[in-house]
Write a structure and sequence with these properties.
eleven-stranded mixed β-sheet, single chain
Protein backbone atom coordinates (compact mmCIF):
# COMPACT_ATOMS: atom_id res chain seq x y z
CA UNK A 1 0.00 0.00 0.00
CA UNK A 2 1.11 3.53 -0.71
CA UNK A 3 -0.28 6.41 1.29
CA UNK A 4 0.72 10.04 1.33
CA UNK A 5 1.71 11.54 4.66
CA UNK A 6 0.82 15.14 5.48
CA UNK A 7 2.02 16.04 8.95
CA UNK A 8 1.56 19.80 8.56
CA UNK A 9 -2.06 19.76 7.42
CA UNK A 10 -4.65 21.14 9.86
CA UNK A 11 -7.69 19.78 7.98
CA UNK A 12 -10.25 18.33 10.40
CA UNK A 13 -7.79 18.59 13.28
CA UNK A 14 -9.56 17.48 16.50
CA UNK A 15 -9.95 21.03 17.79
CA UNK A 16 -6.13 21.39 17.91
CA UNK A 17 -6.22 19.93 21.43
CA UNK A 18 -3.60 17.25 20.89
CA UNK A 19 -0.29 16.84 19.12
CA UNK A 20 -0.09 14.24 16.42
CA UNK A 21 0.28 13.29 12.79
CA UNK A 22 -2.10 13.65 9.84
CA UNK A 23 -2.13 11.31 6.85
CA UNK A 24 -4.50 11.12 3.88
CA UNK A 25 -5.79 7.88 2.41
CA UNK A 26 -5.14 7.55 -1.33
CA UNK A 27 -7.54 4.69 -1.95
CA UNK A 28 -10.43 2.84 -0.36
CA UNK A 29 -9.76 0.26 2.31
CA UNK A 30 -10.06 -0.59 5.99
CA UNK A 31 -8.41 1.46 8.72
CA UNK A 32 -6.21 -1.25 10.26
CA UNK A 33 -4.26 -2.13 7.08
CA UNK A 34 -3.79 1.60 6.47
CA UNK A 35 -2.32 2.06 9.96
CA UNK A 36 -0.13 -1.04 9.75
CA UNK A 37 1.35 0.20 6.48
CA UNK A 38 1.75 3.76 7.70
CA UNK A 39 3.27 2.72 11.04
CA UNK A 40 5.29 -0.19 9.69
CA UNK A 41 7.95 0.15 12.38
CA UNK A 42 5.40 -0.51 15.12
CA UNK A 43 4.02 -3.92 16.09
CA UNK A 44 0.45 -4.88 15.33
CA UNK A 45 -0.37 -4.80 19.05
CA UNK A 46 1.03 -1.27 19.34
CA UNK A 47 -1.15 -0.12 16.45
CA UNK A 48 -4.20 -1.77 18.01
CA UNK A 49 -3.40 -0.01 21.27
CA UNK A 50 -3.68 3.35 19.50
CA UNK A 51 -7.23 2.46 18.49
CA UNK A 52 -8.12 1.11 21.92
CA UNK A 53 -7.03 4.31 23.66
CA UNK A 54 -8.84 6.70 21.32
CA UNK A 55 -5.71 8.01 19.61
CA UNK A 56 -6.98 7.60 16.03
CA UNK A 57 -9.36 10.06 14.36
CA UNK A 58 -10.90 9.86 10.88
CA UNK A 59 -12.13 13.15 9.44
CA UNK A 60 -12.19 14.68 12.91
CA UNK A 61 -14.10 11.81 14.57
CA UNK A 62 -12.42 9.45 17.10
CA UNK A 63 -12.67 5.79 16.06
CA UNK A 64 -11.79 2.51 17.77
CA UNK A 65 -12.96 -0.12 15.26
CA UNK A 66 -10.29 -1.88 13.16
CA UNK A 67 -12.61 -2.18 10.16
CA UNK A 68 -13.55 1.50 9.90
CA UNK A 69 -13.79 2.12 6.12
CA UNK A 70 -11.54 4.71 4.49
CA UNK A 71 -12.17 6.53 1.22
CA UNK A 72 -9.65 8.42 -0.94
CA UNK A 73 -8.90 11.78 0.64
CA UNK A 74 -10.02 10.82 4.15
CA UNK A 75 -7.89 12.47 6.82
CA UNK A 76 -6.47 10.11 9.46
CA UNK A 77 -5.07 11.80 12.55
CA UNK A 78 -2.89 9.82 14.98
CA UNK A 79 -2.65 11.55 18.32
CA UNK A 80 0.49 11.39 20.43
CA UNK A 81 -1.71 11.60 23.53
CA UNK A 82 -4.25 9.10 24.78
CA UNK A 83 -7.86 10.19 24.81
CA UNK A 84 -9.16 10.72 28.31
CA UNK A 85 -12.73 9.51 28.63
CA UNK A 86 -13.48 9.40 32.32
CA UNK A 87 -16.24 7.37 33.91
CA UNK A 88 -17.53 8.61 37.24
CA UNK A 89 -20.76 7.51 38.88
CA UNK A 90 -21.50 7.07 42.59
CA UNK A 91 -23.23 3.71 42.06
CA UNK A 92 -20.99 2.13 39.44
CA UNK A 93 -17.22 1.68 39.22
CA UNK A 94 -15.29 0.21 36.30
CA UNK A 95 -12.85 -2.33 37.73
CA UNK A 96 -11.28 -3.44 34.46
CA UNK A 97 -11.87 -3.29 30.71
CA UNK A 98 -10.31 -4.29 27.42
CA UNK A 99 -11.52 -4.53 23.84
CA UNK A 100 -13.96 -7.37 24.62
CA UNK A 101 -15.25 -6.93 28.19
CA UNK A 102 -15.98 -4.49 30.99
CA UNK A 103 -16.01 -5.65 34.64
CA UNK A 104 -17.80 -3.34 37.09
CA UNK A 105 -18.58 -3.05 40.79
CA UNK A 106 -22.26 -2.11 41.16
CA UNK A 107 -23.70 -0.50 44.27
CA UNK A 108 -27.01 -1.64 45.74
CA UNK A 109 -29.98 0.36 44.47
CA UNK A 110 -28.87 0.49 40.83
CA UNK A 111 -30.67 -1.66 38.27
CA UNK A 112 -28.45 -3.80 36.04
CA UNK A 113 -30.79 -3.40 33.09
CA UNK A 114 -34.43 -2.48 32.66
CA UNK A 115 -37.06 -4.39 30.72
CA UNK A 116 -38.94 -1.13 30.12
CA UNK A 117 -38.59 0.67 26.76
CA UNK A 118 -36.81 3.44 28.63
CA UNK A 119 -33.65 2.00 30.19
CA UNK A 120 -33.76 4.56 33.00
CA UNK A 121 -30.49 4.99 34.88
CA UNK A 122 -29.21 1.44 34.76
CA UNK A 123 -25.70 -0.02 34.69
CA UNK A 124 -26.34 -0.96 31.07
CA UNK A 125 -27.39 2.59 30.19
CA UNK A 126 -24.45 4.22 31.99
CA UNK A 127 -21.88 1.97 30.33
CA UNK A 128 -23.51 2.39 26.91
CA UNK A 129 -23.19 6.16 27.24
CA UNK A 130 -19.56 5.77 28.31
CA UNK A 131 -18.43 3.64 25.35
CA UNK A 132 -20.29 5.87 22.88
CA UNK A 133 -18.19 8.83 24.02
CA UNK A 134 -15.16 6.94 22.68
CA UNK A 135 -16.89 5.97 19.42
CA UNK A 136 -20.61 6.58 18.66
CA UNK A 137 -20.85 3.10 17.12
CA UNK A 138 -19.75 1.31 20.28
CA UNK A 139 -22.28 -0.82 22.16
CA UNK A 140 -22.62 -2.79 25.38
CA UNK A 141 -24.07 -6.31 25.50
CA UNK A 142 -25.64 -7.97 28.54
CA UNK A 143 -24.09 -11.18 29.91
CA UNK A 144 -25.83 -11.57 33.29
CA UNK A 145 -27.69 -9.50 35.85
CA UNK A 146 -27.63 -8.60 39.50
CA UNK A 147 -30.82 -7.71 41.36
CA UNK A 148 -31.30 -4.01 42.02
CA UNK A 149 -30.64 -4.53 45.72
CA UNK A 150 -27.55 -6.73 45.19
CA UNK A 151 -24.14 -5.08 45.07
CA UNK A 152 -20.90 -6.35 43.63
CA UNK A 153 -19.20 -7.64 40.51
CA UNK A 154 -20.74 -8.11 37.11
CA UNK A 155 -19.51 -7.89 33.54
CA UNK A 156 -20.69 -6.80 30.11
CA UNK A 157 -19.47 -7.69 26.63
CA UNK A 158 -18.37 -5.03 24.15
CA UNK A 159 -19.37 -6.92 21.02
CA UNK A 160 -22.08 -9.36 19.99
CA UNK A 161 -19.77 -12.28 19.18
CA UNK A 162 -18.23 -12.23 22.66
CA UNK A 163 -21.69 -12.06 24.23
CA UNK A 164 -22.95 -15.05 22.25
CA UNK A 165 -19.83 -17.10 22.91
CA UNK A 166 -19.88 -16.50 26.66
CA UNK A 167 -23.60 -17.13 26.98
CA UNK A 168 -23.34 -20.37 24.99
CA UNK A 169 -20.44 -21.60 27.15
CA UNK A 170 -21.31 -19.92 30.45
CA UNK A 171 -20.78 -22.89 32.76
CA UNK A 172 -17.38 -23.65 31.26
CA UNK A 173 -16.20 -20.04 31.06
CA UNK A 174 -17.30 -18.89 34.52
CA UNK A 175 -14.97 -20.73 36.87
CA UNK A 176 -16.23 -19.21 40.13
CA UNK A 177 -19.01 -16.88 41.29
CA UNK A 178 -19.04 -16.22 45.01
CA UNK A 179 -21.51 -14.13 46.98
CA UNK A 180 -21.63 -13.08 50.60
CA UNK A 181 -25.00 -12.77 52.31
CA UNK A 182 -26.21 -11.73 55.72
CA UNK A 183 -29.01 -14.15 56.60
CA UNK A 184 -31.42 -14.24 59.52
CA UNK A 185 -30.64 -16.80 62.22
CA UNK A 186 -28.01 -19.54 62.18
CA UNK A 187 -28.18 -22.53 59.82
CA UNK A 188 -28.04 -25.97 61.41
CA UNK A 189 -24.99 -26.86 59.31
CA UNK A 190 -21.93 -24.65 59.00
CA UNK A 191 -21.26 -26.00 55.51
CA UNK A 192 -23.89 -27.42 53.20
CA UNK A 193 -25.04 -27.87 49.62
CA UNK A 194 -28.60 -26.90 48.73
CA UNK A 195 -30.22 -28.60 45.75
CA UNK A 196 -33.75 -27.58 44.85
CA UNK A 197 -35.88 -26.96 41.77
CA UNK A 198 -36.99 -23.42 41.07
CA UNK A 199 -40.00 -21.98 39.28
CA UNK A 200 -41.55 -18.50 39.09
CA UNK A 201 -45.16 -17.61 39.90
CA UNK A 202 -47.42 -14.94 38.43
CA UNK A 203 -46.22 -12.42 41.02
CA UNK A 204 -42.66 -12.86 39.68
CA UNK A 205 -41.48 -14.59 42.81
CA UNK A 206 -39.15 -17.56 42.47
CA UNK A 207 -39.95 -20.54 44.68
CA UNK A 208 -38.81 -24.13 45.29
CA UNK A 209 -40.99 -26.82 43.77
CA UNK A 210 -41.05 -30.42 42.56
CA UNK A 211 -38.40 -31.54 40.03
CA UNK A 212 -40.93 -31.89 37.23
CA UNK A 213 -42.09 -28.30 37.67
CA UNK A 214 -38.81 -26.41 37.99
CA UNK A 215 -35.16 -26.03 37.01
CA UNK A 216 -32.41 -27.54 39.12
CA UNK A 217 -30.58 -25.04 41.32
CA UNK A 218 -27.41 -25.86 43.25
CA UNK A 219 -25.43 -23.73 45.66
CA UNK A 220 -22.81 -24.35 48.34
CA UNK A 221 -22.59 -22.20 51.45
CA UNK A 222 -20.16 -21.74 54.31
CA UNK A 223 -20.91 -19.82 57.51
CA UNK A 224 -18.16 -17.25 58.08
CA UNK A 225 -19.44 -15.95 61.42
CA UNK A 226 -22.69 -15.55 63.28
CA UNK A 227 -24.36 -14.21 66.40
CA UNK A 228 -27.78 -14.69 67.96
CA UNK A 229 -29.55 -12.75 65.19
CA UNK A 230 -27.59 -13.04 61.94
CA UNK A 231 -25.08 -15.19 60.08
CA UNK A 232 -22.60 -14.04 57.46
CA UNK A 233 -22.28 -16.72 54.80
CA UNK A 234 -20.23 -17.23 51.67
CA UNK A 235 -22.13 -18.77 48.76
CA UNK A 236 -20.67 -20.43 45.67
CA UNK A 237 -23.15 -20.87 42.84
CA UNK A 238 -23.05 -24.03 40.77
CA UNK A 239 -26.07 -22.83 38.81
CA UNK A 240 -27.08 -19.23 38.22
CA UNK A 241 -30.88 -19.15 38.40
CA UNK A 242 -32.89 -15.98 38.84
CA UNK A 243 -33.13 -15.02 42.54
CA UNK A 244 -31.57 -18.39 43.39
CA UNK A 245 -29.83 -17.44 46.63
CA UNK A 246 -32.83 -15.49 47.90
CA UNK A 247 -35.27 -18.32 47.16
CA UNK A 248 -33.08 -21.10 48.54
CA UNK A 249 -32.24 -19.22 51.73
CA UNK A 250 -35.96 -18.71 52.34
CA UNK A 251 -36.49 -22.42 51.65
CA UNK A 252 -34.11 -23.48 54.48
CA UNK A 253 -35.68 -20.96 56.84
CA UNK A 254 -32.88 -18.37 56.86
CA UNK A 255 -33.84 -15.61 54.42
CA UNK A 256 -31.44 -12.87 53.36
CA UNK A 257 -31.84 -9.87 55.68
CA UNK A 258 -33.58 -6.91 54.08
CA UNK A 259 -35.51 -9.18 51.69
CA UNK A 260 -39.22 -9.16 52.72
CA UNK A 261 -40.24 -10.59 49.33
CA UNK A 262 -38.42 -13.78 50.31
CA UNK A 263 -39.45 -13.99 53.93
CA UNK A 264 -37.09 -11.62 55.78
CA UNK A 265 -38.40 -10.18 59.05
CA UNK A 266 -35.64 -7.59 59.46
CA UNK A 267 -34.07 -4.82 57.40
CA UNK A 268 -30.99 -3.76 59.38
CA UNK A 269 -29.26 -1.63 56.73
CA UNK A 270 -32.14 -0.52 54.47
CA UNK A 271 -30.92 -2.76 51.65
CA UNK A 272 -30.83 -6.35 50.46
CA UNK A 273 -27.87 -7.90 52.28
CA UNK A 274 -26.43 -9.74 49.28
CA UNK A 275 -23.12 -8.96 47.59
CA UNK A 276 -21.38 -10.52 44.55
CA UNK A 277 -17.84 -10.54 45.89
CA UNK A 278 -15.89 -12.82 43.57
CA UNK A 279 -15.98 -13.39 39.80
CA UNK A 280 -13.52 -15.71 38.02
CA UNK A 281 -13.81 -16.46 34.31
CA UNK A 282 -11.86 -17.63 31.28
CA UNK A 283 -11.25 -14.70 28.96
CA UNK A 284 -12.85 -15.64 25.63
CA UNK A 285 -10.12 -13.97 23.56
CA UNK A 286 -6.95 -14.87 25.49
CA UNK A 287 -7.96 -18.14 27.16
CA UNK A 288 -6.52 -16.89 30.46
CA UNK A 289 -8.39 -17.04 33.76
CA UNK A 290 -9.33 -13.60 35.04
CA UNK A 291 -9.95 -13.16 38.79
CA UNK A 292 -11.76 -10.25 40.40
CA UNK A 293 -12.74 -9.74 44.04
CA UNK A 294 -14.32 -6.94 46.09
CA UNK A 295 -14.37 -6.62 49.89
CA UNK A 296 -17.33 -7.66 52.02
CA UNK A 297 -19.38 -4.49 52.76
CA UNK A 298 -18.72 -3.17 56.25
CA UNK A 299 -22.44 -3.23 57.06
CA UNK A 300 -22.43 -7.02 56.68
CA UNK A 301 -19.50 -7.50 59.05
CA UNK A 302 -20.70 -5.00 61.66
CA UNK A 303 -23.97 -6.88 62.10
CA UNK A 304 -22.23 -10.14 62.99
CA UNK A 305 -19.74 -8.80 65.53
Amino acid sequence: MNYKSNQSSQKHHPENKTRGRHSAAEKSGALLPFLLDLLNRQSKNSVKSLLKHGQVWVNGIPVTHFDTPLNPGDDVFISHERACVEFNHPQLKIIWEDEELIVVDKKDGLLSVSNAPSQERTAYFLLSEYVKKIDPRNKIFILHRLDKGTSGLMMFAKNKNIQEYLRSNWHEMITRRTYVALIEGTPEKKDDTIITYLAENSRMKVYCTEPQHGKEAILHYHVLKSNTQYSLIEVDLETGRKNQIRAQMEYIGHPVAGDPKYGAQTNPADRLMLHAGRLFFIHPATGKEMRFETPVPKQFCNLTK
